[in-house]
Amino acid sequence: MIYQFIERVELEFSVSQLCKLLQVSRSAYYEWKTGQSYRPDQQEEEELVKVKQAFWLHKKRYGTRRLVAELQEMGVDIGRKKVRRLMKTQSLVAIQPYPKIINVKIQVLYPELPIADTGN
Fold first, then answer.
1. Residues 6 or more apart from 47 whose CB is under 8 A from it?
2. Angle ∠(90,40,89) on CA atoms, nearest 5
3. What is the DSSP letter of 98?
4. Which pTM was predicted?
5. Nearest residue to 51 (alpha-carbon basis) of 63, 42, 33
6. Would you write out the chain's pLDDT as a tens digit for each of its 120 residues?
7. What is the residue range of 17's domain?
8. Structural domain contains residue 51
């Protein structure tokens, strides 16, 4: 929208002044004008779909490291930082387990109680 405005009035005002006034870079404007501005490519869209599928398949329990391993098993060549970025754009956050400290607290406060060891 900003770029269309600059294009409409660039004959009346200098592009440099307009870009400075509207707080956009001149290079970004000219890239937009020539059709070279950033657009997510098809491969990134496919990777996003696969990240979301793997994330929901494992019920929000897999973080970036486990998702990367899962995706590589599926044949998707993707790095952890890209998975993290894609997850962040979609607000996907893995469930973090709660610390199991209640048994320890009870054992410290009431050592006479026979509490079964859960292996934690």
1. 76, 78, 82, 86
2. 15
3. P
4. 0.53
5. 63
6. 788 999 999 899 999 999 999 999 999 889 888 887 666 677 888 999 999 999 999 999 999 999 999 999 999 999 999 999 999 999 999 998 776 666 667 777 777 777 655 555
7. 2-34
8. yes
